[in-house]
Amino acid sequence: AREEGGDMAARYRSHMSSDAAQRLATEHALHRALAQQEFVLHYQPQVCLKTGRILGVEALIRWQDPHFGLVPPGRFIPIAEETGLIVPITEWVLATACAQAGSWQRAGMPGITMAVNISARLFNHGDLLGIVDHALMAAGLEARFLEIEITEGVIMRDLDHTTDLLRELRRRGVRASVDDFGTGYCALGYLRDFPLDVVKIDRSFVQRLGADVRDEAVTATIIQIAHTFALHVVAEGAETASQVRRLVALDCDALQGYYFSRPVPAEECSRLLRNPQPF
Ligand code: C2E
Ligand code: CA
Ligand code: CA
Ligand code: CA
Asked: Is Phosphoprotein one of the keywords UniProt gives this record (predicted)?
């Protein structure tokens, strides 16, 4: 009977698309990765365009797979999101990122903002507040140094829920940013209605600056309106000096992109933070 069962399983597997089998294998490996602590965070600086100082960093997860090496998040975050593993993974990310920010401060480095990506599932269905409170407490980090990043799609999914949750975060002093702004369906008016602190302009706009006048007009409008609502504007993904010049001319506040730095491991980021003029 056992053998038969094995046969059935094998037959079932062979009928699954290789895509589904791949997903199952990844899910299994992600469980192991969590248990074996195979995830690492890299940090990408956000640089003030007026002073050149590092105002904050975004924590970006990588998976140090023993066989495949460093796996980028695009290859496993969507599967983690589908399977629910994103919740314990984000718990780890928040705890690790807050602990890192706390230890940088205790080492005498300037207080910078630590930005963490929050997925749809956790924002809409999980105990985000409980996880955030726990991470801050365990790290001994003041709430104002933590910033959560959510995309337009997450913001728009359930407007009442979004309002409640963002209010609770604001009450604690945690900052909130809209990630990938311009790619989804978030009307500019929502920037006024929700308690948000930062707008991150999507890389796709930034990379066409100077090449496409319509993109430039959209970027200029986003920056102006965001400023009207007293929001801080961070441009994502600037790679060239001319893109940076355009963003300065458009009055963008800060920049996160390869032009200044790729996401780097914690030790490398410490060196940047210790240097008052890193770029
Ligand atoms: P994102 O939140 O939009 O993060 C920015 C991505 O743009 C990062 O890719 C970063 O390396 C890349 N980037 C920054 N500057 C430049 C540039 O100048 N040029 C180019 N070509 N790329 C640039 P990464 O680290 O591969 O992350 C991809 C996505 O994975 C993130 O996009 C985010 O959606 C997701 N992700 C990463 N870490 C986490 C996490 O801890 N939790 C969750 N839920 N999602 C995460
Ligand atoms: Ca992000
Ligand atoms: Ca982004
Ligand atoms: Ca993105």
From this structure: yes
Interval between CA 149 and ligand 2 midpoint (Å): 6
Task: Name the burial class of residue 73, with classes exposed (0-12), middle (13-18) and buried (19+) by CB atoms within 10 angstroms of its CB.
Answer: middle
Token digits of residue 115: 């930005």
Would you say the CB of residue 72 lies under 6 angstroms from ligand 1? yes
Measure the CA–CA gap between 236 and 111, rounded to whole angstroms. 21
Please compute, for residue 200, the number of CA atoms within 13 A of its CA located in the half-sphere on the CB side: 27
Ligand 1 binding pocket includes 70 (Cβ within 6 Å): no
- Measure the CA–CA gap between 147 and 116, rounded to whole angstroms: 6
Of 80 and 4, the structure prediction assigns the larger pLDDT to: 80
Residue 10: the pLDDT is 61
Please state, rounded to an integer, the average pLDDT across all residues of the chain: 92
ipTM of the complex: 0.98
First to last CA, the chain: 67
